[in-house]
Each structure stands twice: as structure tokens, then as C-alpha cells.
Amino acid sequence: MEKSTLFSHIGRPKIDTGVSVNPPIIRASTLLFDKADDLYEGGHRIYGRHGSQVHDSLKEAFCALEGGMGCTLTPSGLSANTLSVLANVKAGDHILVSDSSYGPIRHFCDSHLSNFGVETEYYSPRIGREIKGLIRENTSCILLESPGSLSMEIQDLPAIVKIAKEKKITTIVDNTWSAGLVYNPLSLGADIVVHAATKYYSGHSDILYGAIISRAQRHADKVNATNIALGNSTSADDAYTILRGFRTVIARFERQEKTALALAKWLGRHEKVSQVLHPALDSHPDHALWERDFSGSACLFSIVLKPCSKQQVLDLLDRLEYFAKGFSFGGYESLIIHCDPQLTRSHAEDFAGPLVRIACGLEDITDLKLDLEQSLAELSLDG
Ligand SMILES: Cc1ncc(COP(=O)(O)O)c(C=O)c1O
Question: Which residues carry out catalysis?
Fold first, then answer.
């Protein structure tokens, strides 16, 4: 079955007389039982924190999306990342995290994991099989994000996974960029995939939500046990809305992908742009890896402007009418940020000018292009 058909049907109530199309929202902390013995012995869901029917439907959809055995739902994309790491480390461990990972993950590793005796080492996202040289006796997991946040490096996942498997190291991939629609790390051998469902699955920039999908039951059980121990849960209302996002995500994703690719190509020819960081362009340094492992691209890419002052970049952004300044992507609205303040790297990355990240929404491309065109026209370059 094709994904669009699957996503129209998965997790829906069985058709019966007068049944609703979508699963019901059950808001509950306490669940009641007729027989006292069932509280402990019945094998039932016994408390609201353990979810409800709509949570089960959503987990089923995420497992189908990524080809996983189990899914844990979390209150945000960041918590999906931190929880999947926490489930796979203990005091004394060493972990490897991509230097291009989402910034707040770095903060979690440096400011919190370190308090529990877990050491984080950041590796260059273009390391590939050379990651072998960084592995120690106590390395327990590798956290990847491909393409990298802001700078869009594609990682050689199969090469990294091969070495991780030899050393029995758990690989975790943040797959938010691709929505799981054009890249499936579990099929390339990764153990765990995480999503910030806040992006495409919310689709409307009004919910924070995360999902962790594991290829093997033992990883799924570990993540789930950690989630239960931490006391995390998500509301039925949010689970319902994220599941609703599945019904339309392919149509939205494809349109946003098309807009982003067309804008990236056009910006690649613009006199004020020195580089476009979009992996589907053959000018991208990792284009061959992208072509090998991905079946499409997404709404998000970055550009490197020709050298100009910070004030010129801020003015460029402020002149835009349709690209709002704000973090995130995957919603219906286009967004733009200047990335330099967030670029904290252990491995220096030299860009020829200021970096700007563009997230395309569902607006008409003609308007988006005109918006960028008029603002770029007023940009004064150095010298
Ligand atoms: C790649 C990536 N992972 C995780 C997150 C965190 O998601 P959330 O905002 O739901 O915590 C983000 C947010 O921008 C992201 O870009």
C-alpha cells in the first residue's frame, strides 16, 4: 500500500453504524475498574499517563511511517531526542553527537548529561567511516541528524551504522527534516529514529510534540521504560491533532518540497548569494550521499550570502513580508532566521558570508520569490 493510502486509513476506528471517522479523544487521569482485582492483575491500561486509544493509533502511524516495532510519544521534539539518549546511557559512558545537531540537544549534553557522568564528544558530520577512530570502550550511543540543523550536511549513515553495530553502539537519528517521508534511517540500519512532530505533523505551528520509533522491540522497551520512569505523558487532544496531521502531511510536504527546491535553484543563480545549502542541488558537497539515501528533499534549506554586515542581514529579513522571523519549520507559513548566533561548533565550519535558513510554507511561490527578490535587491554587500 502506498503511504498516502496508508495515512488516510491507519489508526481509524473500525467502520460500524454511525461511527466517527477519527478516534475519540478521551481525557483522563483516573481510569475506573469494576473489580478491585483488575487494578493490579487485569493487564489493562490502569492510569491516564499510559495513554488512550488515540495515543495507540498515533503510535501505530509512526511505526508504519518508519518501519519500527515500537513508538514512544513525548511532549516535544527536544524531549524525543533527550529521552532516547537517556534510555541508552549510564554513568561513565561516552557518547558521540553530530556537531551539526539541533542546538538545545548540545545544551542538554553539556549541561545535564555531564552531571550524571556521561561525556559527550562532538564529531564532524562529514566523518563517515572515520568515526571508528573516535569510538572508545565506553561509547554507548551515537546521535545523528541528517541533514544537519542550519548547515545541511548529509551524513554517511550506512558507514556509521556499520561501525556502530560492530561495537554494539546504539544509533539514534533525528529525522525531523524529512518527516520520515523521503528518508528512513531504520531501513539503513539505525536503531532509533526521533521526530519533532511539532513540525510537519502539527503542520500549523500550534503544538509541541515528539515521537521515538525503534527498529527492535528491545530498544522500544528501553525507551518506553525510561519514559514511564520519568512520568512523561502527552494529552489526548495533542495526540489527536498530530494524528490528524498524518492525513494531509504528504500533500503539504510535497508542495513545500517543490517550493523550496525551486527557490533554492533560483537563489543559486542570485548575484548576492554565494552558496545554497540544499542537498538536492548538485552543487551541495554531500549531494551524492543524498541521492543514494534519500528519495526527496524538504521545505528547509539555508543560503550563504556574499559578505555583508550583520545589520544588512537583519535589514534583509525585516524587509520581508511573507517570510516571518521565527524558529521552526514544517508549518503552513514560511519562516526565515539568520543562523550565525546559533552556530556553536567544535569543528570549525567556514562559510563565505552570513548564513540564513529558509523554511517554505504553503504560500504561492510567485509571492515568496518576489518577496525575497525585492529584499535582496536592497542588500548592500561589503566592499
Ligand atoms: C531537527 C530538530 N530536532 C528537534 C527539534 C526540537 O523540536 P521541538 O521544538 O518540538 O522541541 C527541532 C526544533 O526546531 C529541530 O529542528
Answer: 49, 102, 174, 199
